[in-house]
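BUG-260 | component: ligand-complex export | severity: low

The export step for flavin mononucleotide jobs runs without errors, but we want the raw record kept on the ticket for reference. Input record follows.
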Amino acid sequence: MSENIIYCYSGSGHCLNMAKTIASYLGDTDIVMMRSFPVKTDATEAKRVGFVFPCYGGGLPGHVEEYIKAIRIAPDAYKFAVEQFAGYMGCGLHKIDEIVGLDYWNMISNHSTCIWLMPHSLCLPPTSPEKAQERVNRKAVEVGLAVREGKRSEKKPPKKAFFAAESKAFSGMHSKRAKKFQANSDCIGCGTCAKICPMHNIYLIDTKPVFGSDCIGCLSCVQYCPKQAINVGKITEKRERFPNPNVKAMDLTKQIIHID
Ligand SMILES: Cc1cc2nc3c(=O)[nH]c(=O)nc-3n(C[C@H](O)[C@H](O)[C@H](O)COP(=O)(O)O)c2cc1C
């Protein structure tokens, strides 16, 4: 059993990259990917338990809320959370605080990965993807040091009730939107999309991906397709992809990543 556990959700690698940096400041950390549900819910032996996740539709992605509700944490463990978002933080941190009671929380704006809705350049304050990555790295170091020192946040994360409503509506829209996913003629049938889909919702038929309706909208398939052949309707055809440069598609399929 590792001294620290970080539960991480990541669709395009940015939160995983951040979790790894934070873990490198703590040592002896298991990063448990919340893309597979549930891999490890017994965290009772960990001294520190963290959550690193993106804002999706104003709230928590996929099954993250149910996952966190299932986790058992020792009463004296130190609990922290960090959220990435593009334009607004939503209610995810508040939700996690309600479930586990956070000692420390932080957040940072990164470029948007929700490219069917916004161009990838949405980030507050606006900057280049490279500078945004530097900013996220600095935040990861800040969090790593704060958690190592056992820092406590003075305030609770804000409730943001409006975003709780947005988040409910957003998760209900996924199956409708799932019908818009398609691969164009640039597809080489490599199967990356099928391998990384956390819902096992993509099948290859005659080497071409076919998309089911059990989609949670993470866009990993769109972001990590090596030929940028997967689109959500027409709008993503013109939009740049934004996967994290340090995280490979197959890293997202790992269930637990140990960092010493
Ligand atoms: C499906 C989806 C929904 C998103 N919703 C929001 C949102 O409501 N507000 C926001 O500011 N950013 C939103 N984002 C942007 C992500 O929070 C941001 O790009 C984050 O850095 C992605 O981290 P990841 O690469 O670990 O998945 C969304 C991204 C995706 C893919």
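Assignee comment: Attached the raw record above. Helices lie at 14-26, 64-70, 92-100, 129-149, 161-172, 174-178, 192-196, 220-224.
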